[in-house]
Design goal:
The protein is an alpha/beta fold and 317 residues long. The chain is built from 11 helices and 10 strands. It has a single domain, classed as 3-Layer(aba) Sandwich (Rossmann fold), CATH 3.40.50. The radius of gyration is 18 Å and the shape is globular. 52% of the residues are buried.
């Protein structure tokens, strides 16, 4: 039986071929740049962030004090999407933000290993082990929210706040989400070569960063340029979209036994208003919280509201 392919429902065959060729080129370039044993330490310094290569993830930022809080981004993004809420979170926590395998500074998983939620969670667990962190509070957005719940199921999370978690879409809804992601990917690929110029104005940032946010003009020009490049060039985008949203689904939600809050933006066009209640219903004792006026990636839409939604859970004894 032929494996389901995300392109069957989103773009025509010509575009599919072009995208697959582009992905192979990007993957080869990424693997050439990371021509060393998988998981080796790679010291890098940029913008004062702390970097370390751990089990295929780039530990891009660590700051603050208190109980450890792990931040996980969504498909196509990097740890930088959390920057608007970092000051508030770092007052309460030792915050660790990572790039998932195949995104940002992190190389893809080893050749032949599918980037399923289970495999991505394995990589994160290895990174936590390396850092000496047996358990952490976890906040995740979109795909990161799905992974956060999986970490809780495995017993690695003290609590979870999932912002617009992906994974519980019905088949017709998955087709819509896949198509929307592919459209944003094509747009970012086109804009990536001129990203610093393309995001100078608020109007341009709004055009390029929608529909993930309800207030995309609030993202700084520097972060917007980085996001456009990451979304358009991340070698992990296509395979991760396929092996998560297209063919995957969360399992064992009834086994989650830690405090969980599921949040969704009331202006989220990625259908979190449908999937979030399903998560809340499936996880025992989960709290469902709307983020009024926010989109799918709400951190820049309303930083104070999002930070409070997280710390209300993570600082409660």
């Amino acid at each position: 039986m032929r494996e389901p392919r995300i392109f069957d429902v989103s773009v025509d065959q010509r575009v599919e071929r072009d995208l697959n060729e582009q992905f192979e080129i990007e993957l080869a370039q990424q693997q050439k740049r990371v021509a060393r044993p998988f998981g080796a330490f790679i010291p890098v310094a940029q913008d004062g962030d702390k970097w370390a290569q751990v089990a295929g993830l780039a530990k891009r930022h660590r700051a603050g004090s208190g109980d450890p809080l792990l931040l996980l981004h969504g498909l196509g993004l990097t740890w930088r999407c959390w920057r608007p809420v970092l000051p508030d979170l770092e007052r309460a926590h030792d915050v660790v933000a990572m790039d998932l395998p195949g995104f940002g500074a992190a190389p893809p998983l080893p050749r032949g290993r599918r980037p399923t939620v289970a495999a991505l969670s394995d990589a994160i667990e290895a990174a936590l082990d390396d850092a000496g962190l047996e358990s952490v509070h976890v906040a995740g957005n979109s795909l990161g929210g799905w992974i956060a719940v999986e970490l809780a199921r495995r017993g690695r999370a003290r609590s979870v706040v999932a912002l617009s978690p992906a994974g519980l879409e019905l088949p017709p809804e998955r087709l819509y989400v896949i198509s929307l992601n592919q459209t944003m990917r094509l747009r970012a690929m086109a804009a990536a070569p001129v990203a610093p110029v393309a995001v100078v104005s608020c109007v341009a940032r709004t055009a390029l960063l929608a529909p993930m946010r309800s207030r995309p003009w609030r993202v700084s020009a520097g972060d917007a340029a980085e996001e456009v490049r990451a979304f358009g060039r991340s070698p992990g985008f296509q395979p991760t979209l396929h092996w998560t949203i297209a063919v995957g689904a969360p399992a064992g939600l009834d086994a989650v036994a830690v405090p969980v809050r599921i949040c969704f933006g009331t202006r989220d066009v990625m259908l979190a208003s449908l999937t979030a209640p399903r998560y809340a219903a499936a996880i025992p004792g989960a709290d469902l919280r709307p983020l009024h006026g926010c989109g799918h990636v709400p951190m820049a839409d309303d930083p104070a509201r999002v930070a409070a939604a997280i710390t209300d859970v993570t600082t409660t004894r």
